Fold this protein.
Amino acid sequence: MVDIAPSLLSANFADLKSELKSIEEAGCSILHYDVMDGHFVPNISFGADILANVHQACKMELDVHLMISDPLFYVDRFIKAGASYISFHIEAMESIEKTRELIKKIKDAGVKASLAINPGTSYEAVLPFLDDIDMILVMSVQPGFGGQKFNPVAIKKIAALSKLKEEKHFIIEVDGGINATTIQDVRKAGCDLFVAGSAVFNQQDRKKAVEALL
Ligand code: DX5
Ligand code: ZN
């Protein structure tokens, strides 16, 4: 299985159909879809309507990363648009109860639920939810932009979470600054799924770019 999830954020949006085709042909079965609201992060990307179009245009599973302040309000639209995974940020949630409510909402819809943590957030923040979630998204950059430098703070968190994987049933995803060099230590630490934006879409030959990460 190819465990690279290319991030659409670095694609050419004027040519989405062939961009999607290029990564499907490179063997990828999961696409990372970064949603930014200009409030939780200082950038704006795309929303649920474009996700529905992407869902129509390819067969890949859609790994939606919500970098938005009110995921509880918007989540239904992304479920309806065809998300397979939905990650939301623990930093955006006002309470444990609301976090549980959102996880339940996602899972009741048959979608995989994931909690994302920023570089400044301890991995311990997700511990109360480990029985309920399908994935943890460990950020290795401050969210908001593609093409940033990998922050090694993610490696220790992934190693600590990885030890808990056998008892519980979740996978670990890393996001930010992943390239052929930085992926090595993250893989060793026990990460399962690797988001790569610029490392894939900034290369002409997408198959070669993906293979360089495997
Ligand atoms: C950053 C996004 C990432 C981004 C990764 O806020 O969450 O998914 O697209 O891009 P690279 O791989 O270029 O760091
Ligand atoms: Zn992302």
In short: Residues 4-211 form a domain with the TIM Barrel fold (CATH 3.20.20.70). Helices lie at 16-25, 48-57, 71-80, 96-108, 153-162, 182-188, 198-201, 206-211.
